[in-house]
Specification:
Helix content: 25-40%
Number of domains: 2
Distance between the termini: 14 Å
Mean pLDDT: 95
CATH topology of the largest domain: Rossmann fold
Number of strands: 15
Largest sheet: 7 strands, mixed
Radius of gyration: 20 Å
CATH architecture of the largest domain: 3-Layer(aba) Sandwich
Oligomer: single chain
Strand content: 25-35%
CATH superfamily of the largest domain: NAD(P)-binding Rossmann-like Domain
Order of helices and strands: EHEEHEEEEHEHEHEHEHEHEHHEHE
Length: 326
């Protein structure tokens, strides 16, 4: 079968190749999944470059948000049947088929398309963990989401609104600002055109926001920490800017706010049962119409490399989905 594979780390355009690989064969507690949809994300690029926390052995097939149908169940696996629709957060998704551990799979409800499922787990799982469990977000509070037009950001906007918050978003360019407003933000700002500190102070009457959902790092972090309200929470989601910022401890003390780390993957390693809890919450919010993933494009396997480059160049809003069997 054809799959995107890398044998050494580096920029995707240099190391990722569409090659023939062996057909996967399930063993032990595994099932074989016929892949219908794979969600691409910025961390896929970091993983290919060797800059992500999780470094799989080489050679490696990227693609970790996998939705599909079980094509074969290895003897001894009892909780799944051939034909079951499942979601797996693993690896090897940029291929037609993959083997996955049976105890790591999640059920996809009939009301959810494979493309939707592949766009939801990591972005919305991170958001549920961050906003509900780490920030303890309450109805009536205010939230600022940085990089609000991307997959992570649009998910955070929708989730915070579903939890009863007033939500502000930051994005670069008028089109992306329109996207943030369209997914439910109360107001979005073009950080290229306005002073975000002054803008947030103006819309909050100088109070600032209760929660900042911060995935950019660098200069953006330096700015938004200044608008965290008294007793607020600054959620550290990631550093897509490439620079890991520092916060002066005196500023944290004087404004009585918390800087809260959000590492959903590490939390799941310590509490595996949380995955099903978070997924059930996502399904509940989707079923009731509170959330719906923003999908930028659905493309065939052959366009995966171009799609990763578009994500890296910040040319996308929402999520790119690859359909390996298309």
């Amino acid at each position: 079968m054809r799959a995107w594979q890398l044998e050494q780390l580096g920029d995707p355009g240099d190391v990722l190749k569409l090659v023939d690989v062996a057909e996967p064969v399930p063993s032990g507690n595994q099932v074989l999944i016929e892949i219908e949809a794979v969600g691409l994300k910025f961390p896929d690029i970091l993983q290919i470059q060797g800059r992500y926390q999780i470094k799989p052995p080489l050679p490696f097939i990227p693609g970790g948000e996998i939705a599909g149908t079980i094509a074969e169940v290895n003897p001894g696996v009892e909780q799944w049947r051939t034909g079951d629709r499942v979601l797996w957060m693993g690896g090897g998704g940029l291929a037609p088929r993959v083997c996955a551990p049976a105890d790591q799979l999640l059920p996809i409800p009939d009301s959810m398309a494979a493309t939707q499922a592949a766009a939801m787990l990591i972005n919305y799982g991170t958001g549920v963990f961050a906003l509900e469990e780490r920030a303890g977000l309450r109805a009536g509070e205010t939230v600022l989401v940085t990089a609000a037009a991307g997959g992570v950001g649009t998910a955070a906007v929708q989730l915070a609104k579903a939890m009863g918050a007033t939500v502000y978003g930051m994005a670069g360019g008028s089109d992306k600002v329109a996207t943030v407003n369209a997914v439910g933000a109360d107001k979005a700002f073009d950080y290229r055109q306005v002073d975000i500190v002054e803008a947030i102070r103006e819309v909050t009457d100088g109070r600032g926001v209760d929660v900042v959902y911060e995935a950019v790092g660098g200069d953006v972090f330096d700015q938004v920490r200044r608008v965290v309200a008294w007793d607020g929470r600054l959620l550290v989601i990631g550093f897509t800017s490439g620079r890991i910022p520092e916060a002066p401890a005196n500023h944290v003390l004087l404004k009585n706010y918390s800087i809260v780390g959000v590492h959903w993957g590490a939390q799941l390693a310590r509490e595996p049962e949380a995955l099903r809890r978070h997924w059930d919450r996502i399904v509940q919010l989707h079923t009731t119409g509170h959330i719906d993933p923003l999908i930028f494009a659905v493309r065939p396997l052959e366009e995966a490399l171009d799609s990763l480059e578009a994500i890296g160049n910040r040319e996308t809003v929402g999520k790119i989905i690859i359909e390996p069997s298309r």
